[in-house]
Design brief:
With 650 residues, the chain is α/β, with parallel strands linked by helices. It has 21 helices and 18 strands. The chain has four domains: 190 residues, Spore Coat Polysaccharide Biosynthesis Protein SpsA, Chain A (Alpha-Beta Complex); 122 residues, no CATH class; 111 residues, NAD(P)-binding Rossmann-like Domain (Rossmann fold, 3-Layer(aba) Sandwich); 114 residues, no CATH class. It is globular.
Length: 650
Amino acid sequence: MDISIIIVNYNVKYFLKQALLSVEKAMHGIDGEVFVVDNDSKDDSCEMVRRHFPEVILIENKENVGFAKANNQAILQAKGRYVLLLNPDTVLEENTLRKCIEFMDQTPDCGGLGVKMIDGSGQFLPESKRGFPSPAASFYKLSGISSLFPKSKYFSGYYLGHLSENENQEVDVLAGAFMMMRKEALDKVGLLDETYFMYGEDIDLSYRIQKGGYKNYYLAETSIIHYKGESTKRDSIKYVRIFYKAMIIFAKKHFAGRKAKLFIFLLNIAIYLKAGITLVKNLFKRFFFPVVDGILFFIAVFLAKKFWANYYFHQPDYYPAQFMRINAPLYVGVWILSVFFNGGYDKPFNIRWLVRGVLLGSFGIAAIYGFLDLEYRTSRAVILISTLIVLFLAFLFRMIVHYAKYGHWAIGKSQPKKLVFVGSISEAERAQNLMLRTGNEKNYIGTVSPDKDYDAKSFLAGIGDLDQVVRIYDVDELVFCSKDIESSDIIHWMGVLGPEIHYKILPKDSMSIIGSSSKNSQGELYVEEVKFAIATPTNRRNKRFLDISLSLLFLVLSPILVWFIRDKGSFLQNIFDVFRGHRTWVGYFEMASTKDYPAIPKAVLSPLVNPNIHLDEPTMNRLNFLYAKNYSVETDLELIFKHFGALGNR
């Protein structure tokens, strides 16, 4: 047998199906076998494999055992001369396996082989070819310095940035996303080290293959798509931490003495540097609008105060100095909190949420006004004028930001992308219907034929003129129908057209459209699935706010409320559990199927709280489904009001 392909899967059913379809094409005429090792996925991945790919050898783990151990389970059963470790979020060209086998057959000293990988936007992934992770190379990579000098032999040694991506060459390290190895080399150097749970195991095995007397090569003659390249992970503190731990394991295993200490010292510096930069970037993204709003709202109060003091009182210094020190920050804080809890900082931006947040905040300020001492009270006119200025400045600021991002003034809306399908009419119609059902608003231009000869009444052009179609119609997004087009052609056109276009692929017989909008985004799905209201940021935040507010209210009124509660002791315990986020006042029935719905804490009250009604499991599951799908704060309040006496349930 020529090859054994091993794919480790964890909750990526739609990507896995596309990968297996591409493997199926690439295996044509090749004697081989395919393993899928599933690490306890909850998305019916195993059922999909059994239904659509019965020839695949499926290993179902009952827990997530990690990348290394899962691969080893299949390697021990593999019969091929070569073993390929393949990620589930990849797409192979039709000739990829044949070219790799031919290269390894002709290169006896090749123990491991990697190929050219591109991301979902068609850009080359630097992890396709990597150098040995020396202390300096690891430091430059982890700290981000290598990204500043991507072609430097010195600073970009981790990714061998000075070597051409279009030439076959010897490399030190292969990427675990596509790692083809000679079985006899594995028998000699051993399997993947299971000390690594995620990341680092491919580096370790590549290093041991070289130590075993073999060489690792990079093959540029064939390409694959890898949706989740490392460019999607570098901004994650979790990734930095996991990668750091993996490098520590590697250093302790393969280095000794001063070299190991230097490696760990540089890694420590890099981890804090990278984590600090990442933290600042994440804070900036999260708090940019609230911080700018705070400044604008403060300016609004200042302008309103100045205007009213001059216009009404004819005294520029009528208001005392403490007004700007006490009143203004109080007003600003109330407005920002009100805008936040009304969804004014959620994406996509909605002008109604902003206006509602500001107006409700102004009502809150007016209510607080009556409780302030006379020396801190200001004219209600100042509050009203401030509100008008706040609305104007906030809206103007968002218009400017929106125009800078989208190039038009239709705030709250992004221009529908101009979309072209590439494939047969039947597959293009299937793709369009799927996108319509998933609520993706697009400007459908038409369809490009997969052949050079085409019917001008049905198609915009043949595939040979795809670049002209993109240029003439200023196309933003292409959807390739892989039933009609080979993966090699898709990858070719991604390279020709460049990363400015968004690419998606409709796999054969699939109810999902898969792609990635840029090299810095993870794989995306257009898939026909139920949209749960309880999963929206606004509803999740409002539910948590309701839980906290009610917990505080119940605690204050508990001496009175306990007389209406059946289980008084548990009621107080529930108050503290809900406040800490360990429970929620209203939620799902406890049952195994709740894993299919957006996660929330264990509930005190379920959608139907009536001990006199016995419900079977399907009915409870249906009620859970309806609760998640149609959730609103009013739903929780209604159930709490109706079943107040049951708030002591445990």
